[in-house]
Amino acid sequence: MHTVTIAPEAVARLAQALPPGKQVTMLNLLRFRETALYEDGSTLPPCTGRQAYYERYAPVATPMVFARGGTILFAGQAASHVVCPGDEVWDDCLIVQYPDVSLIATMFHVPEYQAVVHHRTAALIDSRLIALGEGVVGL
What is the Cα–Cα distance from 66 to 98, expressed in whole angstroms? Predict the structure, then answer.
């Protein structure tokens, strides 16, 4: 199942799962469209999904992460899919850490973010956004 939209109820579950003041690390798995898919009537020039994400969405979203004390721990292309179903391949992976889980929810609702999130939606054919808890279990 392809999933791209960041649903408000998922953000609410995240806020319930981790109490305020708790650091959270987010794993972002991204699969780009060959050509970004904007809604009918869009006046934007055509571009690849990767361009829509990194040239239209990220220049606004990334400073918002930094302004909230977030840090990009890793950003890179997937080199190989060692353990992964054949139909679940990823182009890029981002690991972003926030000092407080509440900062994520507030970012998704600000007008500046809402003004560019359609570029993320147009760019991606599939994605995962997974909140990682602290600590290593069993190791």
Answer: 9
User: How do residues 35-91 score in pLDDT, each as one tens digit?
Assistant: 999 998 899 999 999 999 999 999 999 999 999 999 999 999 988 888 888 778 899
Closest CA to 4 of 119, 85, 132: 119
What one-character DSSP code corresponds to residue 38?
P
| Residue among 2, 65, 66, 78 nearest 33 (CA) | 2
Structure tokens at 60: 């606004």
Closest residue by Cα to residue 135 from 2, 15, 24, 4? 24
Identify the bridge partners of residue 92 per DSSP, sorted by sequence position. 30, 77
Strand 124-132 with 92-98, pairing: unpaired
Q: Where are the domains of the chain?
A: 21-37+69-133
Average pLDDT value for the chain? 88
Q: 26 - beta bridge partners?
A: 96, 131
**Domain spanning 21-37+69-133, CATH class:** alpha beta
Q: What are phi and psi of 126, to 5 degrees?
A: -160, 155
